[in-house]
Specification:
- The complex is a heterodimer of chains A (about 260) and B (about 375).
- Chain A has about 260 residues and is of the alpha/beta class.
- Chain A has 10 helices and 10 strands.
- In chain A, the strands form 2 sheets. Chain A has a 6-stranded mixed β-sheet with strand order 6-7-8-3-9-10. In chain A, strands 2-1-4-5 form a 4-stranded antiparallel β-sheet, covered by helices on one side.
- In chain A, a hairpin with a 2-residue loop joins strand 4 and strand 5.
- Chain B is of the alpha/beta class.
- Chain B has 2 domains: about 90 residues, 2-Layer Sandwich (Transcription Regulator spoIIAA), CATH 3.30.750; about 240 residues, no CATH class.
- Chain B has a 4-stranded mixed β-sheet with strand order 1-2-3-4.
- Chain B is elongated.
- The chains are: A alpha/beta (about 260), B alpha/beta (about 375).
- The interface between A and B is large, with 36 and 37 residues.
- The structure holds adenosine-5'-triphosphate and magnesium ion (MG).
- The site of magnesium ion has 4 residues of chain A, from helix 1.
- Magnesium ion binds next to helix 1 of chain A.
């Protein structure tokens, strides 16, 4: 099947520091891809390039088969209505209430009446476990986890086919992380959603991702299922997945081999 | 991707048939998702609502559906699942979610008839509170000044010198331009009048006193309020939005000593210097215009200045400059520290800060004019 996102020969350079060197990555329709990598390895930057917010020094990024750089603005705008984005810090509009934040993209379409928008916003807020009594609050009055969930509701407002999530579960309690994973699974089933997410959270990674792409040494080191990734014995991967913390999480989640996580060694 | 991806995706469609029992059966087909519905949502919603009482619904021909489409249909059903409904199993979950009981948000607040009166009271209270707050800030700055005098090495000298550079040195160009033009215009207008009375020489008095005593300090202060006052408010406001102020507080770094005190000192130093500069340029402009209009030579103009403008006027101008500078900084800091962590408040606070600073400058200027009315007037 044709990939939904294709990145070919991408270079990112800030001043004289190279963040990505000849990076290649593709995302198939309907899959959940997790991007992992050390802090500062350029995950957020890569995500911003997939969104067309930043221009790579070299290389092409194609989303839905359309190259993001060098297409007319109108086409890019149409493209952007087909994806939803959750930023690392939420990026809620601080001057708008929770309700208006989620309603904004719907109202911007100018084709639904206010009653419909109201029902839709309440539905989306309920999907991310935000109670209706929080709808009139301002972003400054919310907890960090609530900001994340409301930003997710806003990302889902326009029924995206493609969802970009930057650290979706950072700052959520385990229970909420769990329900986030469940939500992603449900949405995939119902809407055939494709998801690209950046995460450090092993539990989420194991539970939600079909494929993991490891970003290290300025490129995608390996990408594949958890087993395939773990099999590549790079120091970063060994530390991340097979370090003490990683093993604990993996063992608790699902034994990979009959002997449990210890069997990987 | 979609189960029906192999066949072409069709437009949303509503088909009606008469059911055996005399009612209508509604069959929906095509794509009921946001991209298909965008253009026709209202029309389709209305069409669906007309058949709200249909006896049976067949949704199995729907090729794809999302929350938008499902909600459109759900609203047509008046938010109840119809008894006779045929649904694809994979669409079951969407409607189940819509049907899940949800609390509705609290009713919006009712209209308040006393609102205008209350807002007037709020305004008065805010003004009084603001004045009090600025006095408190001034007191705090005095205390900081004492602390710095006692231990000069720990003073925020770098911030102060950076502030003098930003508000003073970088404003030289704009104050020169404005000062020069005002000098030319003032001299030109007075020359027009004086010529009729044959009192040409008095143009030096008018331009000299006008510029040195009033216009120089005022121009410098208004430009600084617009340039630096807004910058200070916006800077402190962004620090509030990004929680930098809280970070300073929890590190035990005194806000007023690090943020307010250096700005007040910097402006109190820089504005008098700018006043001197603006005075000089405006007088030069006036001199040029006097020569051109009345034929008063540059040498005559300069030589008659000391007699026409007693030195006391310079001191009044400089004193006003220092006071205006400190006031602008205090007001800007006051509004900056009160900004709430959202972008709207940031914009409103900055506007209010500049308006308040300019208003206060003009009020203080008027007070000074009354208080010193007997000082520094050459001609009696
Ligand atoms: N606008 C910029 N100018 C200069 N350097 C930048 C810029 N944006 C990012 N960088 C650098 O690029 C590198 C990658 O940053 P990025 O934010 O993508 O990291 P990340 O993988 O998302 O890290 P984290 O997990 O901590 O969020 C960092 O070294 C950062 O300093
Ligand atoms: Mg990041």
């Amino acid at each position: 099947m044709k990939p939904l996102i294709e990145i070919e020969g991408l270079w990112t350079v800030f001043g004289d520091s190279v963040v990505h060197r000849d990076l290649n990555l593709s995302v198939a329709p309907g899959e959940v891809l997790a991007l992992v990598g050390g802090s500062g390895s350029g995950k957020t930057t890569l995500l911003r390039q997939m969104l067309g917010l930043e221009r790579p020094a070299r290389g092409v990024v194609r989303v839905f088969g359309i190259p993001l750089h060098g297409v007319p603005a109108a086409q890019l705008r149409r493209l952007r209505k087909r994806w939803g984005v959750l930023f690392q810090e939420g990026a809620l509009y601080s001057a708008l209430s929770v309700f208006d934040n989620v309603a904004l993209p719907l109202r911007e379409l100018r084709c639904f009446d206010e009653g419909f928008v109201r029902d839709m916003v309440m539905l989306k807020l309920a999907m991310v476990d935000i109670e209706a009594r929080h709808a009139d609050k301002m972003p400054a009055e919310l907890s960090g986890g609530m900001v994340k969930r409301i930003a997710l509701a806003r990302a889902l407002a326009l029924e995206p086919e493609l969802l970009f999530l930057d650290e979706p579960t950072a700052g959520l309690d385990p229970d909420r992380s769990e329900s986030f994973v469940r939500l992603v699974a449900e949405l995939r089933r119902e809407l055939k959603l494709t998801v690209v997410m950046v995460t450090h959270d092993l539990d989420t990674l194991v539970a939600a991702a079909d494929r993991i792409a490891v970003l290290a040494e300025q490129r995608v080191l390996v990408s594949g299922t958890l087993q395939e990734v773990v099999a590549a014995r790079h120091p970063f991967i060994v530390n991340f997945f097979l370090g003490e913390r990683g093993l604990r999480a993996l063992a608790a989640l699902r034994p990979l081999t009959p002997g449990g996580a210890a069997g990987i060694r | 991707m979609q189960p029906a991806a192999s066949t072409a995706i069709r437009e949303p469609e509503i088909r009606l048939t008469s059911a055996a029992d005399g009612g209508t059966a509604v069959a929906l087909s095509g794509a009921w998702d946001i991209r298909a519905l965008q253009a026709r949502a209202t029309e389709l919603g209305r069409a669906l609502a007309r058949h709200a009482r249909a006896t049976s619904w067949d949704l199995t021909e729907i090729q794809r559906i999302d929350h938008i489409g499902a909600l459109l249909i759900w609203r047509a059903w008046e938010k109840r699942r119809p008894a006779a409904l045929a649904l694809r199993p994979e669409h079951e979950a969407l409607f189940a979610r819509l049907g899940a009981p949800r609390e509705t948000s609290a009713a919006r607040a009712r209209a308040d008839w006393l609102e205008p009166l209350r807002s007037l009271g709020d305004l008065a209270a805010a003004l009084a509170g603001g004045a009090l707050e600025i006095v408190r800030l001034l007191g705090q700055v005095m205390l900081d000044a004492l602390a710095v005098l006692r231990d000069p090495l720990r003073g925020p000298w770098r911030e102060i010198s950076a502030g003098v550079y930003r508000t003073g040195a970088q404003a030289l160009g704009i104050t020169a331009l404005v000062g020069f033009l005002i000098g030319v215009v003032l001299s030109y207008l007075s020359a027009e009048q004086l010529r009729d009375f044959g009192a040409n020489a008095f143009v030096v008095n008018i331009v000299g006193i006008g510029v040195v005593r009033e216009l120089g300090p005022m121009l410098a202060a208004i430009l600084v309020a617009g340039r630096s006052g807004s910058a200070i408010t916006a800077q402190l406001g962004v620090m509030r939005v990004t929680e930098e102020l809280d970070a300073l507080a929890v590190m035990g770094i005194p806000q007023s000593l690090r943020l307010v005190f250096p700005k007040v000192v910097a402006l109190a130093v820089a504005v008098p210097l700018l006043v001197l500069w603006t005075d000089a340029i405006a007088l030069a402009g006036g001199m040029l215009s006097a020569k051109w209009q009345l034929g008063i030579g540059y040498r005559t103009f300069v030589q008659s200045l000391p007699a026409a403008v007693p030195i006391a006027n310079y001191w009044i101008g400089l004193g006003k400059g220092a006071a205006f500078g400190a006031l602008i900084a205090l007001i800007a800091c006051h509004f900056g520290l009160r900004i709430e962590p959202n972008t709207e408040s940031l914009g409103a606070g900055t506007t209010r800060s500049v308006v308040a600073a300019i208003t206060v400058v003009i009020i203080v200027d008027a007070l000074v004019a009354v208080m010193f009315s007997g000082v520094g007037m050459g001609l009696r």
